[in-house]
Design a protein that fits this description.
Layout lengths: L3 H16 L4 H22 L13 H13 L5 H19 L6 H8 L16 H9 L6 H16 L3 H5 L6 E2 L5 E5 L5 E5 L2 H11 L21 H15 L13 H14 L4 H8 L8 H6 L1 H10 L16 H7 L2
Antiparallel strand pairs: 1-2, 2-3
């Protein structure tokens, strides 16, 4: 039986690094999944992680681990499925390198994903988005940074990791201003910028040290903002914006909400979903369909175009047979 430790190490160095060129975030998420699994296994079986074999990670143990994530760690079904996907990737890799463990591997791969409740995406209206962008105090350096970050997030629909990784040289100012980013799956894409956005970006860059490789949105010490820091600043400015726009208090606004807001703005402008998918960097156009389901305004406009159904009450049925007429009146 192949030992687990060397196989798991090769999975990270061979598949994730060399073949998939996986991002830092993907590798960190996978590593976290296996740290949790190995810790759970050690408690369940009393075997040190370095001494485990594939035979120890059978379907019963992996299924118990997935259940543990929900019941004891309080993870959602979606998070459980994400952890399961990481495990499936490893066991699929192992199936070609540990044929003597194929029975165990097949049983683990057969563990189904848990069905999750699909919720409508949350996005900001035009008034809510304007109130949020206006919330930072631009008399301060941090306020200028935050306002541009919020503005750019809503206009471009970048993921929070993409926002955090922007550098000064990611922006091209000229007759056709644009932004270049490295997105999910290491896919590079270019997003055009409106002239007013480009002007704000150009003014901000003048406030930064002239180093093209430096972060576009640095901390006060010059380091790159983290995803957690961006999440906190969004929460802080939403709270401030609520004073001017009370409906914001009813929404759970995260950096991803700003991405959804961009998508809905494009949809309202009449942009087709295929183009929106390219704009957002979606691999599968089906991912973009969620915005069609969430767009109540689009549904209302569609309803207005529908022909009106005759709403006159139907004529009362007249029975032709005396016996049927008798039974109808009972």
């Amino acid at each position: 039986m192949t030992d687990l430790a060397p196989l798991l190490q090769r999975f990270f160095t061979d598949k994730l690094d060399r073949h998939l060129n996986a991002s830092v975030h993907t590798k960190a998420a996978y590593a976290d999944t296996f740290r949790l699994l190995l810790g759970y296994t050690q408690k369940a079986k009393g075997i040190a992680p370095s001494a485990l074999t594939l035979a120890d990670l059978d379907a019963d143990l992996v299924g118990g681990f997935l259940q543990y994530l929900e019941t004891e760690r309080g993870n959602s079904a979606a998070t459980r499925n994400t952890r399961r996907a990481a495990l499936r990737s490893f066991f699929t890799y192992a199936s070609y390198r540990a044929p003597d463990a194929i029975a165990t591997i097949s049983q683990v791969l057969a563990i189904p994903a848990k069905r999750t409740k699909k919720t409508l995406v949350s996005f900001l209206t035009h008034a809510e988005a304007e109130a949020l962008v206006a919330a930072p105090d631009t008399s301060t350096w941090i306020g200028k940074r935050d306002r541009l970050l919020l503005h750019l997030a809503i206009q471009t629909g970048l993921r929070v990791s993409e926002l955090a990784s922007l550098r000064i040289d990611s922006i091209q100012i000229g007759p056709h201003p644009q932004l270049e980013c490295l997105g999910k799956g290491r896919k590079q894409r270019i997003i055009p910028l409106r002239k007013n956005t480009a002007a704000i970006v150009a003014a901000w860059i003048k406030e930064l040290p002239p180093a093209p490789a430096n972060p576009l949105f640095p901390t006060s010490t010059g380091t790159q903002l983290t995803r957690a820091a961006i999440g906190k600043l969004v929460t802080r400015h939403v709270k401030a914006a609520t004073k001017q726009c009370p409906p914001l208090a009813e929404k759970n606004v995260t950096p991803h909400t700003l991405r959804h807001t961009c998508a809905m703005s494009l949809l309202h402008a009449g942009i087709d979903t295929a183009s929106i998918a390219l704009w957002l960097g979606h691999t599968n156009i089906q991912t973009t369909q969620i915005y069609l389901h969430a767009d109540l305004e689009l549904k209302r406009r569609s309803m207005e175009r529908m022909p009106v159904i005759d709403d006159r009450p139907p004529a009362r049925y007249q029975a032709s047979d005396a016996l049927i007429a008798f039974l109808t009146n009972r």
